[in-house]
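Can anyone check this?
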Amino acid sequence: MILFTFSSYFKNIKKVRVYLYTTLVSTPINLFLDWSLVFGKLGFPKLGVKGAAIGTVVGLFASIIVCIICYKKYNGIQYNLKICKTELKEILKLFIPMSIQDFVECTLFAVLIMSIVSRLGTESTAIYNLLLSIISIVTFPMFSYAGSSLTLVSQADGMNNKTNIKVYPILAVLSALFFITIASIIIIINPKIISSLITNDINLINSTGILIVYAVGIQVFNLIQEVYKNSLLGLLYEKWVLVYSTIVSFIIVAIVYFLAIVMQLNLRGVWLGLGLNYFILSVGYIIKFYKGGNIHKNSNQLGESSIIRGDVIE
């Protein structure tokens, strides 16, 4: 939670190189402690999984220390104990719909889909989880570019820069698509390259078959919907995103159930349904972003608390 808060701050002041500093510090510490505590090297006790947990916690703590140092260096904020009611109200106004939207899309939707997959059997569940792990590797740039689009769109909106507002999501999609396309081609040509890093079960790897093409291919729409969703959040359309994504999510759950269970398409039905989900979200978000009315309607809503929009960050 602390690192996520810091990351949002550094994104807004365009000091993303702090991520590099935290990685350079925390990764060696994490690796050293994992090696020494898991296997009992250099006189350290052999703790197994507990040692890995300790290494992870210490690595995260080291990242926080780096963030605190950088925060003290880059911020110009004067502290006091006064509760700023206006700013608190604006934060809660944004937090409630965004947290509900995250819960519906990232937790409830995922649980419902997994409940459908589990009905297909143990092997199908294992294949589905393997494909999810592969996808997480393919799409790792997606969330970074989506977060960047949110920040830049928000700042451009605060400065009434209509041109940049429209351009930033396109650039984010194209930039992330370059990396995702390369990774997808490599994985589709030889899926064992990545799969073998996740599991040594050859039968499980071979069972992915054509499903890996479905799973990887639909990530193009996943990328588009993620970038434009964050861009809409940057324009304070969080309530609209909540309603739209919730409606689509529940409809897609029903469609996935019908395709996978009723039509007996099994995992093909699951991935086809997920692809439809990303496509519908992408279309809706794009239409709302470019044709949803006055794109600057939120520029002056925050009044004195407009600092959270980034327009006085300089």
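Reply from J.R.: I decoded it. Residues 298-314 have pLDDT under 50 and may be disordered.
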